[in-house]
Design brief:
247 residues; alpha+beta; Double-stranded beta-helix; 3-stranded antiparallel beta sheet; 6 helices; Trp_RNA-bd_attenuator-like_dom; AIM24; AIM24_sf
């Protein structure tokens, strides 16, 4: 029979199993909406957009307008269980560090860390000393640059420069599959990679299956105002053709 857990037997700031993490809450934590599975104790959840209006430190610690509506502040005392649709969950400790991570895989972080919006779309950066919990589709592996990563397998990078984008023109021109994908507006790790140089650590999940990031649509929509009417019409036609092809 499986072990039945209670507030006394649950771990403090550790995994319950590979897919569930238990936060020993004593104050505040930032949590992604939907990450909370259950909790013991006196715990309250407030939207970051609402809480920052009365607590200036929240606005100072969370600086990402694209993702702000996807986060809450958990405050109080107790134990909070978090998960992410059966994905692997791991806790990481930053020590005066600088780590950029795929925004949709970041589940929670302590208020000792500051969150900034990365210049790389779909990623956020954590700065300082503290703990954070992130999900991955399969176990995480760590590699050192120089290195090129499939964008869907890339989870994040620490203490190294932001990557540049490498396009494999030979794959696109000589591969029938690559040429077809390019014509349809698709990309793969064989055609486009993130190119890392310098020193640091790169985090990879052991799968190319990426979670859908709802903030990407908001980010793209915010940029469409820069398009002319003709460009917007052309983009719309391409998106319709892509949706029809993938349906």
């Amino acid at each position: 029979m499986p072990t039945t857990l209670n507030v006394q037997s649950l771990p403090d700031d550790d995994n319950v199993n590979p897919y569930v993490f238990c936060i020993a809450l004593n104050g505040e934590w930032f949590m992604s909406k939907g990450a909370m599975l259950a909790y013991y104790g006196n715990v309250q959840f407030d939207a970051v957009t609402e809480y920052s209006s009365v607590q200036a430190w929240v606005a100072a610690k969370f600086s990402s307008p694209v993702y702000v509506q996807d986060w809450v502040v958990a405050r109080g005392h107790g134990k909070v269980l978090i998960g992410d649709r059966g994905f692997d969950l791991n806790a990481y400790d930053l020590d005066d560090g600088n780590l950029t991570i795929k925004a949709n895989n970041l589940c929670a972080f302590s208020p000792a860390l500051e969150l900034k919006q990365s210049i790389v779309p779909g990623f956020v950066t954590l700065i300082g000393t503290g703990k954070f919990i992130a999900s991955s589709n399969g176990p995480v592996i760590f590699v050192e640059p120089p290195f090129r990563a499939d964008p869907d397998a890339l989870l994040g990078w620490a203490d190294c420069p932001s990557p540049s984008v490498h396009h494999d023109a030979q794959w696109m021109t000589q591969s029938m599959l690559g040429a077809l994908s390019g014509a349809l507006g698709r990309a793969s790790g064989e055609e486009r990679q993130y190119d890392f140089t310098g020193t640091g650590t790169i985090l990879l999940q052991s799968s190319e299956v990426a979670r859908e990031d709802p903030a990407v649509l908001r980010l793209v929509e915010s940029q469409t105002q820069l398009l002319t009417n003709a460009q917007a019409g052309s983009l719309g036609q391409r998106l319709v053709a892509r949706a029809q092809q993938q349906s």
